[in-house]
Inverse folding.
């Protein structure tokens, strides 16, 4: 095993542990994350397997395949995060609006009942 | 004809962001007319809020800056809760004229339309006052608005509008930024509201030209509108 393989596998395991430890996600997220991590470790430990899969799919090298899939995955991740971001913006706006309306300061004089109103 | 109403049933809503320099001179004449005035300080970083303190207006403050569309919606929601019968949109930077408000309100109050939209291109003296580069930009925006909403108007991004309570209840702004100007048109179209354009004078001062929407804003707005087509 080469140093880079050890480094990458360690990093993957650390990320997985931190994710399981710190973020309380739904079961589905955890399973998905676990499968992805195992896949990553296998790809690192056995680059020739990744190469075989790459060749089967018409890609030259396993590393290239990982990059392509990674970029596609990141695009989806970005889309998901962006949608969430917009939802958060809507909620934040609603919250700020309610606060502003609750704390509104009315005019000091009572205009609504003066006679010169017309 | 509508039932009798008081002048204070007409609510002028003024979204403002960093307008300390002019906010008082914008608001004074409005207050003097007897209209109800609602000002939303959209999380200004200058002294805007302080300058509002002793004015005879309803004051709201966003805890942080959200954008003109959001400020407008907060002001309208508040005005409706306060029993507003008619709503008038009015910019804080002093570019609009008090004298144009009755012209905007008349078709709304008589029940001829639900919404009156201000336009600086209806009276010769109004559009002659518009700097040439602005005319081009605005006419470009008119075309974009037509593409996105199907409404062909003479003006775009004119902050002066008047509408009935009902129309104000139906039009709900979700665009926090400057794209709300187009969003209002989209909703007028979608809701089948009756509208008319009314002449308004825009005072171009060094201040308003500096503070107003710049050329790159147009691009931002366009991106906002496109994104809105994709998401939700």
């Amino acid at each position: 095993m080469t140093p880079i393989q050890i480094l990458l596998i360690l990093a993957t395991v650390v990320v997985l542990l931190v994710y399981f430890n710190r973020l309380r996600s739904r079961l589905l997220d955890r399973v998905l994350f676990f499968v992805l991590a195992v896949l990553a470790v296998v790809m690192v430990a056995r680059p020739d397997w990744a190469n075989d899969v790459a060749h089967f799919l018409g890609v030259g090298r396993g590393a290239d395949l990982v990059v392509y899939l990674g970029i596609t995955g990141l695009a989806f991740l970005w889309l998901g995060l962006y949608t969430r971001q917009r939802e958060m913006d809507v909620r934040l706006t609603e919250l700020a609006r309610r606060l502003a309306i609750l704390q509104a300061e009315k005019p000091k004089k009572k205009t609504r009942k003066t006679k010169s109103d017309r | 004809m509508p039932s009798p109403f008081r002048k204070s049933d007409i609510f002028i809503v003024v979204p403002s962001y960093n307008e300390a320099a002019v906010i008082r001179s914008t608001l004074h004449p409005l207050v003097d007319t007897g209209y109800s005035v609602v000002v939303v300080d959209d999380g200004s970083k200058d002294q805007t809020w302080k300058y509002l303190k002793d004015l005879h207006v309803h004051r709201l403050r966003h805890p942080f800056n959200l954008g003109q569309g959001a400020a407008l919606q907060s002001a309208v929601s508040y005005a409706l809760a306060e029993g507003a019968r008619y709503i008038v949109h009015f910019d804080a930077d002093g570019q609009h004229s008090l004298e144009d408000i009755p012209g905007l309100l008349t078709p709304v109050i008589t029940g001829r339309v639900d919404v009156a939209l201000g336009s600086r291109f209806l009276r010769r003296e109004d559009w002659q006052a518009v700097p040439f580069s602005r005319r081009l930009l605005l006419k470009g925006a008119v075309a974009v608005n037509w593409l996105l909403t199907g409404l062909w108007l003479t003006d775009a991004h004119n902050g002066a509008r008047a509408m009935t309570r009902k129309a104000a209840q139906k039009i709900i702004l979700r665009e926090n930024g400057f794209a709300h100007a187009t969003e209002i048109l989209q909703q007028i179209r979608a809701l089948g509201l009756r509208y008319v354009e009314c002449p308004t004078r825009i005072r171009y001062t060094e201040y308003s030209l500096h503070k107003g929407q710049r050329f790159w804003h147009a691009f931002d707005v366009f991106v906002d509108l496109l994104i809105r087509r994709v998401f939700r």
Notes: The helical segments of chain A are 3-22, 27-45, 47-57, 62-102.
